[in-house]
Amino acid sequence: MSQSGRRRGLLLMAAGVAVLAIGGGGLILSQVKPTAWTMARARATSDKADARAAEFEKALAAAVHQVRGPEPWAIAIDPADLNGWLAQRWRAWAEFAQDAIPDDLREQPLEHVALAIEQEGSLLVMLARHGRVDWCRLTVVGEPGSVGVEVTGVGVGALPVPVAIADSLAGDLGSLRDGVPPVTLADGRTVRVLDLAFQDGSIVVQCRTDAAPP
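and the corresponding C-alpha cells:
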C-alpha cells in the first residue's frame, strides 16, 4: 500500500486503538452508532436506492463531461445522493474503471462509508468497521484555486478521540491539505477543483474545465 493509503488507514485505525486505551466504558460508547449514520444508511440502502444512485451517477457524469468555456462552474451535491451511490455502485464502478483510480483508493471499502453535514462548514465522514462506526470531521482549508481539507476531529461511535490524538492525526494527514488533483477526461480536457464548501446541507464544488492541449 502506498504512503497515502497508509495515512488514510491510520486515521480510523488509531481511533480504535484509542478506545481500547480508555477501557470498558469507552468500548460500550464505541458501539453506539451515530444518529447521522443511521439516517444516512437507511436511505442509502432503501428499496429505491439503486435507481437513485444510477440517476445520480448519470447527472454527475453529464456535469463533469459537459462542453464548457473557460469560466468556472459549480455543482451542489446532496450527501444523501453520494451515500446511495457509494453503497450501491462504488464497488462495481471501482472495478470497471480501475485504470482511472489509484490502487490505494480502489482498495478502500467506500461502500461502507456515509457522509453528513450536520454542522455548517464541516463534513462528517463515517465508516462501518467490525461492528462499530469510526468517524472523522473535515473542514476546508486554503484559498480559492488551492483548497484542501483537514481533519478537525475523530472518534468511534459516540466516543470522540482525545484532542491530542486528533491533532496528531491531523498533522500526519497533512497531504489532504494539498488539494484535489485534477481529473483528465477521455478527450484530453482537464477538470480542476477551484473551491469547496460544506454549506446549506450540500457539498458545493466549484470547478473549471481546461481545454485539451493542442
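(Above: one complete record from the training split.) Residues 3-210 form one domain.
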